[in-house]
Structures are given as C-alpha cells and as structure tokens.
Amino acid sequence: MAIDLCNKQEQMRIVGNRATLANPFEDALEGISVPLDVLSANQREVVELAYYSALIHPNPLMHVVGDPAAWESNFGHALDRVAVRLDSRPNEVLRHQAINHPDPMMREQALYEYADRNNDDAVELLSYVVEHDTDRQVRWDALWAIEKLGGIRAIQALKRFQQDSDPEIAEWSKLFIGELQTGEPSFDQREGRSTPERTFDETIFLLIHCDLYIRLSQSNQHWGKLSLAPEGLARVYGRAHACPNAKTRERQLVIAKQISGLHADQSLHIDNYLFRGFTERTRDDRGNFYFESHVNRPFYVSGKADDPSSGVQDSHIGFMREGCWYLDSRLKIPQADGEADAIRYVRGRFQGWGYTNLENLQGKSLDQILTPGNGILSTLHDPVAGPMTNVFISGTFKGKLNDWDNDGRLDLNSRDVYSTAEGEVDTNMDGIPDQAGVACCDLGTRLGV
To answer: What is the pLDDT of residue 65?
Structure first.
C-alpha cells in the first residue's frame, strides 16, 4: 500500500494558462502562481503531471477538499499508517538480494520491499533490474513498481524501455507511461490470434501485488505488514488468469488459479473462483466493474493448504474485485453471431480475508515462509474459520494480452486454465467439470465426502 501512496500529494491547480502551487507555510506567504507559457517543456511536464495525477488518484486532494467520510474511509490506508513491517531486512541487504539472489521470486520480493519503503534511489534500483535481470516477469513487475512510485522520475525511467527488444517490456513501458500522464493505457499495434475450441474467449495473465495486514493481538492495537510482490503472491496463493467470455463478461468471469509445488505428487493445485457483479458500459471502449466471489472451499486449520493435520472445515470464501477493462476494436473474438472486441487490458483492486499460523512463522527466513500454500484465504462468517481469521488482504492487479509463442501476434486465449465457464475444475479442458460443483481440486476427497 505504501508504494501506491508515495509522491501523490502535490497541492496543484491548473486554471486556464496558469499553474498555482499551494503554499506549505499557510499564512506566511501566498501561493505561487505562474503562466504555463513561461515554463520550459520539461518544467511544464512536471507541473501538468503533478496536477493531472492528483485528479485521477483514488484520493484526489483529500487533505484539501472533500468529505473525509469518502476520502479517508479506507481500512487499508489506516492499517498502513500503523502496521509494523515484518520484513526487517536492512536496505543494503534488500539492494543486494534484489540483484543477486538466485531465486527470481526472492529477487523481486526484495525489490518490492525496497520500493515500498520509498527509498530515494528506488527508481534507479528498479531501472537497473529492468535492464539487467534475466527473468522477464521480474522485469515487467519491476516496471509496474516504477509506475506505482509515480512522478516525473518514474516517467523518465519508463521511457528508457519503450524500445526494449522484448515486445512485452516495451508495451508495458508504453502502457504505464500513458497511465501516469493521462490515466489511460497506451498499446502497440500488434494483431491478435484466438485459439479455437477453448472454454474461454480470453485467458489474461494477471500481475497481482498485495499487502497482508496481520492482526498480532486481540486488542487490535498491534498490526504487522508484509508486502507481497507479484511472483511471491503467485508462489504462495497461486498463478492467476482472468478468464472472460464476451457474451457474459459484463456480469461474470472466472479467476483461474494454479499453485505449483503444493501437492506431494507435484501435480498442479487447481483453485477457481467464479465472480459475479455489475459493469458500467456508458463508453464503447471500456467497462468499469465491481464483482464478488463466494465459493465453497476447505479451510485448513493448520494454516497451510493441502495440510489436513489439524483438521479441515468446509467453508465459503468471499472476495471482491473492482476496476476497469479496456477493449481493442482491432482484436476480434469469433462469436456464433459475428465478432466481439477483445479485452486488451484490465486493472483494478481487490480485498479479502486470510489466515496465517503465526506460530509456524517464528524463527523462519522469508524464503522459508513464502512457500506454496503457506497462507490461506478465509472468511469471518464461519464458526471455525471466523475466529481464526487474522489477515486483511488488500491489493491491486493488472493484466494484458501477451504474445506467448513469439510469433508476433497477441494470444487471446492460449493459456492453459483448468476451469469450466462456471468455475468448476476441468483438468482436460473439455468444458465439462471433473465433478459437478467442485471448483477446487480434490475438495470432496479432502473433506471425506
């Protein structure tokens, strides 16, 4: 959360051809006002960025105008101000591991933790990683962290990678620059390709970043925070894809997740979530949505998925996601009655509840903690899971179409996801559930049904 709140508080107004900066010394001096046309191109870019970034920020000028019931009622922001960082590694250790750790997930985790602390050289370290890391997912996640930090330095850094040899790095750079400058994503001009006979019209690879706010005492006065970078989240909670169908995407979609390395036989752990909600479609090229999921899941009392040693409770897990998707009229999805424009890009935020067994974390290093399934989603509305729930999960996500086979075309739905259109487990991807109504692999067996 802290990484998303940095560099966003400029008290700037642009009226006509003049820019006014509010005076931080209150009554001692008047505010500063200058004509825009006397500024250099670079100076004007800084001024306009400060103003327009504030307008599109979720809490625009909240300390200047507006009802605090609307702008200050964010539980995640409140927790971020008081929570103690659970990652206590010194900055110099983070910098070293962000570049040198042999595990790409741990390199990225160190990188995001360093950026979340808003260190002065965070953009420079992120840029170094984008330029030199050998893992493309670490590279594009580092680009996202640069965008999260925001400001003119972020835009200048992102511009360095617009012509990167990897087309996905180049497009992410272009996209993030567009968002920082105007609030709107920008795309390249690649064509797309659909894979026939797939359950979903699109399978969009998601980048997900979140903060885990852990309640450390029953008094509610002590909270801890662990910021999970996208690859760390994917390892613990699963790799996620957004899976819409054009006919139904305005009211439902599936988030299909897979966890590698959880099962003893090394088979994938399949974990699908059916979301339903509303989408606002007053513009032809996008949809603003609010969706919720309420799915049947086993709650492992041990705090680790696939570990029934302390007991398993049949429960229902709730989650919310909201955001906006953007269509590309050049990318067409074949339909029985014609064609539909494809979703090129999606962004948004999410929140939910979780449970982590604090006793199992004591004395362990971060790489021993960030293991497959070592943290589970939870609910407050269950007699067993409810009292044990101790984590508030708050995060953001982004996803776009990529060229996965390097043929120069964007792949709309080539990613393997093991779900029916209703979120049931479908291991052979034939559109028919392995077991009707089951959205998480081996759920019936694990509950003794």
So the answer is: 53
Tell me how far apart the alpha carbons of residues 115 and 11 are, in angstroms, rounded to a whole number. Answer: 23
Report the candidate in 228, 182, 248 with the shortest Cα–Cα distance to residue 87.
228
232-242 average pLDDT score:
97
User: Is 415:399 a contact under the CB 8 Å cutoff?
Assistant: no
- Write down the residue that tokens 């979720």 correspond to: 58
State the average pLDDT over residues 388-410.
Answer: 98
Going along the chain from its start, the domains and CATH numbers come out as 2-79 (no CATH), 84-182 (1.25.10.10), 194-446 (no CATH)
* Residue 46, φ and ψ in degrees, nearest 5: -60, -45
Burial 61-89 (b: 16+ CB within 10 A, else e): bbeeeeeeeebeeeebbebbeebeebbeb
Where does residue 7 fall: left (phi above 0), alpha (psi -120 to 50 degrees), or beta otherwise? left
- The answer to whether residues 99 and 128 touch, using CB atoms and an 8 Å cutoff, is yes
Which tens digits make up the pLDDT trace of 331-383?
A: 999 998 999 999 999 999 999 999 999 998 889 999 999 999 999 999 999 99
Q: Is the pLDDT of residue 176 over 80?
A: yes
On average, the pLDDT of the chain sits at 89
